[in-house]
Amino acid sequence: MQSKFYLLQRKYNGQSLLELLAGAMVLIPIVLFGIDVAMVFMGQSMNTTICRDAARAAASGPPSSISPTLTPKQRAEAVVRRTQKAEGAIRIDPVVIVNEQVTRTPTLPFGGIVEGTVTVQTSVDVYPPFLLGHVVEKGAVKITASQTFPFTWVMASTYNISAVPGSAGTAPKPSNGSPVVPGLEPPPKPSTGDPAPVSGTDSGVPGLLDGGGIARGAPPPP
Fold this sequence. Notes:
The protein has two helices and six strands, in the order ααββββββ. It has a domain at 2-155. Strands 1, 2, 4 and 5 form a four-stranded antiparallel sheet that branches. By secondary structure, it is of the alpha+beta class. Helix 1 (2-59) runs antiparallel to helix 2.
């Protein structure tokens, strides 16, 4: 009786083990495939962030038509180089594609804003460590991202308004060097042919009394 019970128990244990193995054969590939997919999504998120930062850096400076030595492409590549990974499951491609669309550029000496946009495209290669890597070409999933930003750079003005005669900030100065306030200019000096005014209440006009009560131009009293 005990031997029959023992055999029946072993039969049930063997059946449970087979069921566990069959379930593991189904669940393990699903888990591994989920890890590969999560790695791809992580690479896509990283590439989007890098592309956005590179596009913002490219738009923060002058376009290549104004600054050929430091172009938007060079600024974008500098951002990618700082985050580039040559090894690992996620590898950033150092090649950056930059497209500039400029509709208006400021001119010196007035300066101003740059009207236009700059588009940056970056890519990463994701190498899934498990099942997905054996399905895709060359064992890598290539992901690209594109971001477009308007130019935020403003050309500084070098226009010197003080060099324009009669403009604000260039009020005429008298001979003593002090500035003249508009509306309070000193009276013009009398010409050499006009009689000089006498001190007191004399206004310098003939027929009017001076300070001593004698009319200008009248004969002196006896």
